[in-house]
């Protein structure tokens, strides 16, 4: 049976922290579904389609990565694809409480669904999408934080606005 897991997030935009985790996950799964959560309450910089395209580009169109988007509950989306494992990253102790609560809530909703917590590389633990957006907005250097395609997309976005 091929091993499949799902890694969800807002990915607004995808950063080197996310790609680090995706590449680590591909060390033990055959296919990773990277799922862009569509949160209508959260104002995003990039459209869902742009976020999906940036994810594919950041992973050099790796055929083992399947990019999708979803609305609603994460576990329902995972179940609809027959994916039994959710991947989450724990960057710092401060992530733990929220992640633990979310994993238990997801288990309550779908008892057979397992959550696997992964430790990202130390040099990416301080990166978040909102900080990358903020640095890019004010013209700071983001080249070591995101894929060049994402850096270019951010530059374009802020030049437009
Ligand atoms: N490296 C770098 N940054 C990382 C990272 C990593 N390994 N992991 C997370 N981040 C960053 C993200 O960029 C994000 O930054 P931002 O807040 O500046 O945008 C931040 O950490 C939070 O990421 P994450 O915890 O993945 O939140 P998210 O909003 O991207 O995604 C969902 C959360 C979508 C998985 C979750 O809200 C969800 O499942 N929603 C669907 C509804 C549902 O089922 N809820 C659960 C029921 S309890």
Structure commentary:
The chain has 161 residues and is of the alpha/beta class. It has a single domain (4-160), classed as 3-Layer(aba) Sandwich (Rossmann fold), CATH 3.40.50. Helices cover 42% and strands 18% of the residues. It is built from 6 helices and 5 strands, in the order E-H-E-H-E-H-E-H-E-H-H. It has a 5-stranded parallel sheet with strand order 3-2-1-4-5, sandwiched between helices. The longest helix has 17 residues, at 93-109. The structure holds coenzyme A. Coenzyme A binds at residues 8-10, 12, 15, 17-18, 21, 37, 73-74, 89, 91, 102, 105-106, 120, 124, 127-130. Residues 8-10, 12, 15, 17-18, 21, 37, 73-74, 89, 91, 102, 105-106, 120, 124, 127-130 line the site of coenzyme A.
Low-pLDDT stretches are: none
Biggest sheet, open or closed, and with what strands and sense? 5 strands, parallel
Bound molecules: coenzyme A
Question: For the record, what CATH class applies?
Answer: Alpha Beta
Side-by-side strand order of the widest sheet: 3-2-1-4-5
Q: How many E-type strands?
A: 5
Number of domains: 1
- Alpha-carbon distance between the two ends: 48 Å
Topology:
Layout (H helix, E strand, L loop, with lengths): L3 E6 L6 H10 L5 E7 L10 H11 L6 E6 L3 H7 L4 E5 L3 H17 L4 E5 L10 H9 L10 H13 L1
Parallel strand pairs: 1-2, 1-4, 2-3, 4-5
Bound molecules: coenzyme A.
Coenzyme A binds next to β1, α1, α4 and α5.
